[in-house]
Structure formats: C-alpha cells, structure tokens
Design goal:
alpha+beta; nine-stranded antiparallel beta sheet; 23% helix; globular; signal
Length: 273
C-alpha cells in the first residue's frame, strides 16, 4: 500500500544513474516479484465476478490492455526468435546488450515462449497473460534498478507504474521505424512518479518517463520500450539516463532437414489484430 510509511534509504555510495555493465538476468527474490504483474491483471475480472461483464472490463484501462492483455505473439510462426537490442546510455557513455524471445508454438498457443539474454534462459512467469514476455522482462529489470538506486521498495515502484497505466494515459497513433521499415504504431507515455507523495525521497527520478510503442505489423507487437531520466530542470533534451529496448528482427529457428541449414526468412508482417 502506498502511503507516508514507505521507507526509502539511498544505498551508501549510490549516485544518480551510475554507469556500469548491466546484468539483465532476473533471479532470486525478483522472480517472486515477477508473478505480481500477471496476478494483478488476471485477478481483476475475477474480483468483480458478481458485477456485470462491462463493469469488470472497464476496470482495466486501454493502456493496460495493450501492454498486458493483448496477444502480441498472434501471427508469429512456431520456432521464431524475436530479437531485441537493449541500450543503456548515460551520456556520453553507452553499453548495449541483446535479448531474445523464442516463440516455440505457432501464435504462442501453448504459452511456451521463452526469454534469454547473454546470461542464458531467463524465467519470466507470465501467468495467464497473453502479452509478449519481453515487456515483463524489461519492466521487472527497471523495477529492480529503481530499488537498487533509491533504496525504495520494489513493490512500491511497481505499483506506481501500474497506477500510471490505470489512469487512462492516451494511446497516440504514429508512424515509426522498426528495423529499417516504416510502420504504423501506437505509443503510450507515462511518468509514474509525478505527484508521488514520496517523490522527495528520490528527487532525481521524479520526472522519469516510460514510453511504449506497439505496431501490428511488427512480429511480437513490441517496437520499442524506453525509460528516460531527465537532466536538470526536467530537461529531456539532455537526459541523465536512457534505457531502450528496440525490435531488431525475427528469425525462424527450424531444425535443419537432412543436415542442410535452413535459409533465414525475412521478417514477415504480423497479422493485424
């Protein structure tokens, strides 16, 4: 529950946005936290079982539906790997990494899509959520980072993000670039820590902005996820820190037939929902 009793203590020696090599692996206690995202949205309709279906449905905002309750992997063939670049920029420094989502069953019908990064396979519990698991992967890394940098509580930051998405942020149509192709997309932007009653306890991050971009014609739906910590006086033109996940391509991972390599197929447009 978010109130004045939340404890924040910046770790000794911590400074705003330290630059270091990222470890994107989700492990230990964070895996338990991961289950909260699917539980929160899977429980929403059940909590209102006695209410009309329209009331239960209205409890979840369009932004929440787009992020967590949309079958982003619909239209993706079996054994397709979706590749995403991850970049951490703390001007003038920058480091990069890669994360992969392997869609094992066509349309992810068996809910068996897996996530891996440079450390290996990453367990990302999605519950009954049909969304692209890379969304949860990115958000849970971000929540863990906020906890580490501020000394705050993981669930507190997670709840702030959920509340910001539940507050009906606009979904803006736009044309964007995805892996070198121009696509029609939709963008959501939130700033979860504006007007936060505990904002004075992590002043460097009050203006932090989250951007989500989705496109039906991009396999896996996710085109870009970005967080930005603005510079002095809320200056996003000169940010302190930017973390970006961007779609890079889709590759079929079918086993070779009779010992022959299978040619790589070009990225195919995904079926519109």
């Amino acid at each position: 529950m978010m109130d004045g009793r939340v404890t924040f203590a910046r770790p000794r020696g911590a400074v705003c946005c330290p630059m270091r090599r990222k470890t994107w692996r989700l492990a230990g206690g964070l895996l338990a936290t991961l289950a909260v995202w699917p539980a929160a949205y899977a429980a929403a309709p059940a909590a209102s079982a006695a209410a009309p279906a329209s009331d239960a449905s209205s409890q979840i905002s369009p932004a929440e539906r787009l992020l967590f309750m949309t079958p982003h992997l619909q239209g993706v063939a079996a054994q397709t790997e979706l590749d995403y670049s991850i970049t951490l920029a703390h001007p003038p420094e920058k480091v990069s990494d890669t994360v992969h989502v392997l869609v094992q069953s066509a349309n992810n019908a068996a809910a068996d899509a897996s996530v891996s990064d440079r450390t290996g396979k990453v367990a990302v519990p999605t519950g009954d959520l049909p969304c692209n698991p890379v969304i949860l992967y990115f958000l849970e890394h971000d929540i863990a980072e906020m906890e580490q940098l501020t000394g705050g509580q993981r669930r507190y930051f997670q709840k702030r993000v959920r509340l910001a998405l539940a507050a009906n942020p606009p979904i803006t149509p736009l044309t964007t670039n995805a892996n070198g192709q121009s696509v029609k997309a939709h963008k959501i932007e939130i700033q979860p820590y504006l007007n936060d009653p505990n904002a004075q306890r992590f002043p460097d991050y009050v203006g932090k902005r989250y951007t989500f971009v989705f496109a039906d014609d991009v396999p896996g739906g996710v085109t870009l996820i970005r967080t930005e910590v603005p510079g002095e006086n809320n200056d996003f033109a000169h940010p302190r820190l930017i973390e970006t996940l961007a779609f890079q391509g889709a590759v079929r991972k079918l086993p070779p037939e009779h010992g022959k390599p299978v040619p790589t197929q070009p990225n195919a447009p995904r079926a519109s929902r």
